Amino acid sequence: MAISEPIYKRILLKLSGEALMGDRGYGIAPEVVQEIAQEVKQVHQRGVEVSIVVGGGNIFRGLAESARGFDRASADYMGMLATIMNSVALQDALEKIDVFTRVQSAIEVRQVAEPFIRRRAIRHLEKGRIVIFAAGTGNPYFTTDMAAALRALEIRAEAILKATKVDGIYTDDPVTNPDAEMLEHLSYREVIGRGLKVMDSSAITLCMDNDLPIHIFNLRKRGNILKVVMGERVGSVVSNRLTENQISYLGEVPLG
Description:
Distance between the termini: 25 Å
Radius of gyration: 17 Å
Strand content: 15-25%
Largest sheet: 9 strands, mixed
Number of helices: 9
CATH superfamily: Acetylglutamate kinase-like
Number of strands: 11
Helix content: 25-40%
Structural class: alpha/beta
Mean pLDDT: 90
CATH topology: Carbamate kinase
Order of helices and strands: EHEHHEEHEHEEEEHHEHEH
């Protein structure tokens, strides 16, 4: 059941780098970035304060490349630079549709992005600007999932919205197992205990310790970001407990 007002006032949207490449095997597809920008604008127009963390896997995957011979720290830094490229591309698409946007980077590149300053990021959000956090945490060995959890907590976001290529969290890979069942609500401990690949375990633990809910949904279905924010029954929720708004569309779901 849809709710007339957004259930969240401030969110962090986590996008994978692969989401920006569409059907390409590599790089950035401008038409896909423009579609994502339009989806974000719909949410922003509802008065929701939106921040974004985007990965860099469409350009360079630090962990994968380190396995092929790169030093892990060097590979991770290259991956951080890839996230800056993606963030600037998304900023460009948003500003072309009249949505004021700021990129804040954990690595200083002042010609293209502000340095990450927590209070400034919050002020941008309060003024109605979208903030894109680039370069992960600025440290090797930390994923962009961890960056999303950390930044969400720093800016006091009410939820993380993780956009994926599947409809939610499944008991098995739905691509290879047609009998896989989608789980509408799980506790953080269930996710960790079952080894479900929602976010990396460090990010899940950080969210659990700070009671930050995570919504997992399919980005490829247009309108899903807005539906999640408006309280519609979309995807899966990971949290310690259900809020009243979540109960209204999920029903009473027992925790594991």
